[in-house]
């Protein structure tokens, strides 16, 4: 296993829902993207972190929420989340892979502030 892949697993950028494949015997892919490309992106994000004396930027996984985290934050079930995704005013998730979606925490918080109590059909 390449050192880059091990590093991505250790920092949580590659998890149990990531699709890791090997093609042509030695070319590694994560969610159908070349390992080198994914590693390069993660490294560039890490190197752009501010100094300790500046306001820290939250880790990427803290800003992007999984479907279960969205359900917990909003107080709904997964089936309600699926229904809300079809509505026009619910935040659109980011596609991180073919079947991996994440929501931006700030967009969900903004959406929640404009919802009136009882407006969310559970």
TrEMBL record:
Gene3D superfamilies: 1.10.238.160. It holds the Pfam family HTH_17. InterPro entries: DNA-bd_dom_put_sf, HTH_17. Residues 64-113 form the Helix-turn-helix domain. Transmembrane segments: none annotated. It comes from the Bacteria. This is Helix-turn-helix domain-containing protein. The lineage of its organism: Bacteria, Pseudomonadati, Pseudomonadota, Alphaproteobacteria, Sphingomonadales.
């Amino acid at each position: 296993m390449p050192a880059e892949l091990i590093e991505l697993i250790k920092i949580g950028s590659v998890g149990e829902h990531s699709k890791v494949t090997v093609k042509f015997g030695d070319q590694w892919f994560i969610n159908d993207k070349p390992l080198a490309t994914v590693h390069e992106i993660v490294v560039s994000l890490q190197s752009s972190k501010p100094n300790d004396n500046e306001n820290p930027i939250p880790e990427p996984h803290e800003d992007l929420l999984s479907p279960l985290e969205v359900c917990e934050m909003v107080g709904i079930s997964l089936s309600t989340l699926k229904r809300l995704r079809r509505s026009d005013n619910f935040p659109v998730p980011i596609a991180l892979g073919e079947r991996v979606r994440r929501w931006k925490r700030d967009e969900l918080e903004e959406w929640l502030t404009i919802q009136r109590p009882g407006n969310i059909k559970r």
